[in-house]
Design goal:
Layout lengths: L2 H12 L3 E6 L4 H12 L13 H5 L10 E8 L12 E2 L8 H19 L5 E4 L7 H7 L4 E2 L5 E2 L7 E8 L19 H5 L5 E3 L2 E2 L5 H7 L7 H4 L5 E3 L3 H4 L25 H5 L3 H7 L9 H16 L1
Helix pairs in contact: 1-4
The chain binds cobalamin and iron/sulfur cluster (SF4) (2 copies).
Length: 307
């Protein structure tokens, strides 16, 4: 078995569902797309995305010795309904914080690679590193970017988290780049309540409910979005729920992503919650990103829609 096969086998043992390898080169076309996207202001108030776009497109600026980007995807779909119609939380935040889950497993994978080749050195990335994760996943053959701008895999739909190891070894396999299977479909574009998908493959994040309920640091959600939340309290899954490729969703066997009782929220409870209770309740949950004042703001916006 060659190095790539051994790494793949170990990744599957660790619970990853897809894994692939991409040569670490500058993402030239994607850099142009990113710059154009930023110049339109589609990133809204996520000023951190403006910082050094060149760095985002060049993995060497993050890890100078990198030769290969190992891309991994983990299915997080669990076969449960949203427990509430008002106060919905997106699937990705139902279980334990995926950053911790994926990072731990990628570090284990890196440790294993070091046992195969003692020269191996790497850097683990999950979400927060300045790297274009979806673009790398495409290059590594994991799937394609759908018109809703999420990565879709043929086997698990778009319900996958992404993570990478930048590694100083040349590793490749025979995988090919997946072609775009969106075809004439535009279900996600038509279903988006805020018209955030401004054109196919292009998200105006400043209109996206996910952005407004998670990333926006303002005291109020702009009315253009707050009136159209459709019950979403944290994140939004509408464009993925309507995607025909998510008919191929499969329940994950990862216990960590099963819904935790403490992520089913009552709006009144959130509004009266103090910092201590919040810290206990959302410990190891991805929902900590919006902070308590963000959750209270979201609860207020939803309440004002029904009153
Ligand atoms: C910022 C961010 C957001 C922003 C903006 C999302 C976006 N579409 O850009 C907001 C807050 C809105 C967001 C929302 C969500 N996010 Co988010 N987010 C990120 C983050 C941190 C950076 C993404 C980024 O760089 N965006 C900037 C735009 C310009 O880049 P892009 O869409 O990736 O496009 C690049 C390439 O795809 C390519 N490209 C795309 N189209 C085209 C077309 C042409 C012609 C060319 C040449 C190139 C090209 O070029 C672009 C780069 O320049 C990534 C993690 C990471 N480090 O990558 C997670 C990430 C994308 N998010 C993730 C998730 C799960 C979500 C949500 C589903 C959460 C939820 N349920 O609420 C939603 C989905 C909303 C949606 N419809 O996209 C996952 C996606 C997993 C997947 N299967 O794709 C990621 C990868 C995190 C992870 N590690 O798993 N997110
Ligand atoms: S996550 Fe929701 S608001 Fe954002 S693009 Fe998808 S459907 Fe629209
Ligand atoms: S809903 Fe249709 S257009 Fe949108 S990502 Fe899925 S297949 Fe592509």
């Amino acid at each position: 078995m060659d190095l790539a096969e051994k790494i793949k086998q170990k990744a599957f043992e660790l619970g990853f569902h897809k894994i692939g390898f991409a040569r670490a080169e500058i993402l030239t076309e994607e850099l142009e797309f990113l710059k154009a996207w930023l110049s339109k202001g589609f990133h809204g108030e996520m000023k951190w995305l403006e910082k050094e776009p060149e760095k985002r497109a060049d993995p060497k600026q993050l890890f100078p010795e990198v030769k290969t980007v190992i891309c991994a995807a983990m299915n997080y779909y669990t076969p449960y309904e949203y427990p509430k119609q008002v106060g919905k939380i997106s699937r990705y935040a139902w279980g334990e914080d995926y950053h911790e889950v994926l990072k731990k497993k990628l570090h284990e994978l890196l440790a294993y690679i070091k046992t195969l080749d003692e020269r191996a050195e790497g850097k683990v990335c999950v979400d927060t590193s300045p790297i274009l994760e979806k673009a790398w996943a495409v290059k590594a053959g994991l799937g394609w970017i759908g018109k809703h701008t999420n990565l879709i895999t043929k086997e698990y739909g778009s319900w996958v988290f992404l993570g990478e190891i930048l590694i100083n070894l040349e590793i490749s396999d025979s995988a090919t780049i997946e072609t775009d299977h969106c075809g004439n479909c535009r279900a996600c574009i038509d279903a988006c309540p805020t018209n955030a998908i401004s054109e196919p493959y292009q998200l105006n994040a400043s209109l996206c409910i996910s952005y407004a309920t998670i990333e926006l640091r303002k005291a109020e959600i702009p009315e253009t979005i707050s009136k159209k939340l459709e019950g979403w309290f944290y994140g939004c899954d509408i464009c993925q729920e309507v995607c025909p490729w998510n008919r191929f969703q499969k329940p994950t066997e990862q216990e960590a992503f099963k819904p935790r009782a403490n992520t089913i929220v009552d709006l009144e409870e959130i509004l009266s919650m103090d910092e201590k209770k919040y810290a206990e309740r959302f410990r190891r949950s991805a929902m900590k990103r919006a902070k308590l004042h963000g959750l209270k703001r979201n609860a207020k916006a939803l309440k004002s829609n029904v009153s």
